[in-house]
Amino acid sequence: MILALESSCDETAVALFDATRGLAGEWVHTQIALHERHGGVVPDLATREHLRHFAPLIERAKATPEFAQVKQVAVTNGPGLAACLAIGVAAAKALALALRVPLIGVNHLRAHAWSPFIAAHAEAPATFEDRLAEWLPHLGLLVSGGNTLLFSIGRDRQIRVISSTRDDAAGEALDKGAKLLGLGYPGGPLIEQLAGGGEKAAFDFPRGIGRRDELDFSFSGVKTSLRYTIEKMAAEEVLARRADLCASYQQAVIDALLRKTRGALELNEYASVGLSGGVANNRTLRTAAEALARGRRLEFFAAQPKHTGDNAGMIAFAAWLDEGADRSAGWDLSISPGAELTAG
């Protein structure tokens, strides 16, 4: 049984994971309503909320029969907001000391990379590792507000970055686009909602780097194009055509993501394709990514909606499965706010 804590940004989360049957409990306190007033995450407020809510969430975990079986404590130690990470690591150290169990540091991005497999493990825990071998090598697309990455998981279970974004992340581009259109925070879901009533071909926005052999992403161009388009329109026209703008803008972002994923699939052989991160919750992107994988007769895995954002379930899962988790630092475990996907 693994007790996991997550506090890399604006979600306070606790989870219990049993390798023999899957997640035994998950508890999350979200801060969206608080940060919505400010148009984005305010680090000082996020840190304060972690201080307020970790104890009640841990108490809820302690009230379960599974808590008595905890043999390890895992915690996100990077990347993320420094003060937020520090709260989680401090809490995890205190719990590990009180329970007299080992402490494991988990890289948040690596946890996202493994998150599409959580549901498959829950379906058949006893045979999961044998089936995982059949799904490797795996091509993963991690799309969030802070990161856009293509990576592979080889048969040796080593994660290797294939490409990343040269400027904005896809989620950041969606949030900035929403701000330009006068929408609220977080912007991505609001753009998706309005896009459902719009025409995706109404505006021709750029799709990032165009060369077939270049797999890096770029989203600054589409954001700039949206700004110039809006500046040429009257305020009344922008409001009247906001659904079309959202649909076209969202489609440009999705096309850029899929084009690079398609390019990676053409360069190497894979047994499966995965989608993870906060933007993976976008239904249009999920449908298109699955169609891309199925069209090549590859298995497709997408993180469940509850595991696309910041959550402790994926931290616990990675603490069990990921060979890159830090199992040796012990009480010397430190935060790594700028850690990358390949960091252990």
From TrEMBL:
Substrate binds at L142, V143, S144, G145, G146, D175, G188, E192, N282. It is found in: Cytoplasm. SUPFAM superfamilies: Actin-like ATPase domain. It comes from the Bacteria. Binds 1 Fe(2+) ion per subunit. Residues 25-317 form the Gcp-like domain. Keywords: Acyltransferase, Cytoplasm, Iron, Metal-binding, Transferase, tRNA processing. Its EC number is 2.3.1.234. It catalyses: L-threonylcarbamoyladenylate + adenosine(37) in tRNA = N(6)-L-threonylcarbamoyladenosine(37) in tRNA + AMP + H(+). PROSITE patterns: GLYCOPROTEASE (PS01016). One of its GO terms (molecular function) is iron ion binding. Fe cation binds at H108, H112, D310. GO terms for biological process: tRNA threonylcarbamoyladenosine modification. Pfam families: TsaD. It is an enzyme of class 2 (transferase). GO terms for cellular component: cytoplasm. Its cofactor is Fe(2+). Belongs to the KAE1 / TsaD family. Required for the formation of a threonylcarbamoyl group on adenosine at position 37 (t(6)A37) in tRNAs that read codons beginning with adenine. Is involved in the transfer of the threonylcarbamoyl moiety of threonylcarbamoyl-AMP (TC-AMP) to the N6 group of A37, together with TsaE and TsaB. TsaD likely plays a direct catalytic role in this reaction. This is tRNA N6-adenosine threonylcarbamoyltransferase. It comes from Horticoccus luteus.
